[in-house]
Amino acid sequence: MQSRVRLPARSMFYVRNDLRFGQDNTYHTFDSYAGGGEWEMKHNGNPFPDAGRDLVQAMLRNPRLQVEVENGLYDVVTPFFATEYTMEHLGLPEKLQTNIHLQYYEAGHMMYVREEDLIKLKNNVGRFIENASR
């Protein structure tokens, strides 16, 4: 049976050579899916992956909805300022715009692999859940 695990190249090397796991499996990295593959990026007729309109509708329906976005400063998967730009250009009423909270980490896309940011992430998410649950 072929596994469909998406791992960066250095992770594949570690898994196969250091851990000696899955030598008989095929692992596809994220780049393997670029250019079509099995990814379907269209959303509501839009050829680009954009859930902004869905977020706006959810926040309009539930004005108490809180949103927290975790940002890695050195993220090469999702461009850093794209998230800020998207959140600032949703067209939300100003009152609802304050329900969006941006957090920043001195790491990349997977900020939890850097121990200092893992701790910060845990604290931020815990505080967010606690505050949003009130």
For the sheet with most strands, the description reads: 2 strands, parallel
The best one-word shape is extended
Give the integer mean of the pLDDT values: 80
Number of helices: 5
Low-confidence stretches: 1-8
Structural class: mainly alpha
* Residue share in helix: 25-40%
CA-atom Rg in angstroms:
18 Å
Strand order within the widest sheet?
A: 1-2
Order of helices and strands: HHEHHEH
Alpha-carbon distance between the two ends: 47 Å
- How many DSSP-defined strands? 2
* Percentage of β-strand residues: 5-15%
List the domain count as a whole number. Answer: 2
Question: Describe it for me?
Answer:
- The chain is mainly α.
- It has 2 domains: 1-40, no CATH class; 64-134, no CATH class.
- Helices cover 38% and strands 9% of the residues.
- It is built from 5 helices and 2 strands, in the order H-H-E-H-H-E-H.
- A two-stranded parallel sheet has the order 1-2.
- The protein is extended.
- The N and C termini lie far apart (47 Å).
